[in-house]
Amino acid sequence: MTIKHHLSDELLMAYAAADLPEAFNLVIAAHLSLCDECRARSMAFDALGGAVIEDSTCEMDEGSLAACLARIDGLTQMTAPLRPRTDRVLPAPVLDYVGGGLEAVKWRALGMGVRQAILPTGDKGASARLLYIPAGAAMPDHGHRGVELTLVLQGAFRDEADRFGRGDIEIADASVEHTPVAEAGADCICLAATQGALKFNALLPRLAQPFFRI
Amino acid sequence: MFDAMSPEKPDAPVPPQLYAAGRARAGRKKGNLRVAAEAEQMDWSALVFRVRDHQDRAAFAALFRHFAPRVKAFLMKSGATEALAEECAQDVMATLWQKARLFDAERASVATWVFTIARNRRIDALRKSRRPEPEDLPWGPEPEPDQAEVFEAQQETQRLGEALSQLPLKQRALIERAYFGDLSHSEIAAETGLPLGTIKSRIRLALDRLRHQMDVKAPEK
């Protein structure tokens, strides 16, 4: 797999620092599951966290060590729980949100064959969803108020500027207005996280917005 | 520009056996320093191995004395009260005991590993946004890790720390605030504005090492 579109340093550092809304964390974890290059970069930002934590210290309460030693008395040591990949399309962190593989996704039609499934996230900073775009079909034309991350899980899409295949991540900010089109061939499945709500340019999708929570 | 190959500064952590409290500075001459620093850097991972292989409580106590106060300080700077930070620092150290077998010394320094445990504890304690982890790598810690790889990984924290301390105050403060979870989402631009400056070369070196690890261990990907 050749991934051409990667995460930015800013997002990787914010993920390492756990500064992002859950929906963004999910898309980043899914990309890292597919992209060794960004996985290594993300570990480098963890290492920076190690340097930050090494840098300042304070006093522990009296008896702190004794209390902790008493605690570990009853603890057994864990062994590595390696989870093998179980779905051809969805990486492990996405499986957890879907509650199963691709067949378990509860799609809702958006019209023109386009479907989506909102994934439940706990905070309001951003929302996450899976998108299904039939091969050759266009995504509804939209801009957005904040940052949007779109990770391709199957097939590919093109917008005015570029092509995105499996594993590629598109980072779009509020200034980007684009009309992605799924390539001919396989239907396109994406995982997207959007900060704030989407703004649609065509009348119909705008009316549909409150119903579909796009 | 920060010289990636400059000799180590006289600021190596003291061996855990000698560790009392606070941040000590080893004031040795340069000739011995490299060797001394190497020996000292190895100690934390060796202590984790002792915890893993022998459930060594003395080794655990040494790790506790060094890392628990750092985790507590980290959590307080992240907005936890002193009492909560104390409790969570103990939790983090107990987790270190429990997960000693999952520590991959070829991949990360002990400080980095402790940071990731502390970060996850902070998410629970301060009700921060859930943070899904990527899929497990198909390879875990080696039973007999390569000593040179372990050494490089353990050195990294010190080198990154030095690079961090040489940043202009404002840049350094912003990076630290990011890691304390103290930046608003609007302060984290997706594309621009991260003042990594001169630490970029250090992060780059860490990255090259990790990239190499990924290539060696997971050639089938």
Write up what this structure looks like:
The complex is a heterodimer of chains A (214) and B (221). With 214 residues, chain A is of the alpha+beta class. In chain A, helix 1 (9-16) crosses helix 3 (36-55). In chain A, the strands form three sheets. In chain A, strands 1-2-3-10-5-8 form a six-stranded antiparallel sheet, sandwiched between helices. In chain A, strands 7-6-9 form a three-stranded antiparallel sheet, with no helix packed on it. A two-stranded antiparallel ribbon of chain A has the order 4-11. Chain A is built from six helices and eleven strands. The model of chain A is unreliable at 198-214 (pLDDT under 50). In chain A, a hairpin with a 6-residue loop joins strand 2 and strand 3 (126-133). By secondary structure, chain B is mostly helical. Chain B has one domain (16-217): Rna Polymerase Sigma Factor, Chain: A (Orthogonal Bundle), CATH 1.10.1740. Chain B is 57% helix and 0% strand. Chain B has seven helices and no strands. Chain B has helices at 30-54, 57-77, 82-98, 110-125, 147-165, 169-179, 200-217. The longest helix of chain B has 25 residues, at 30-54. Chain B is globular. At the A-B interface, helix 1, helix 2, helix 3, helix 4 and helix 5 of A face helix 2, helix 3, helix 4, helix 5 and helix 6 of B.
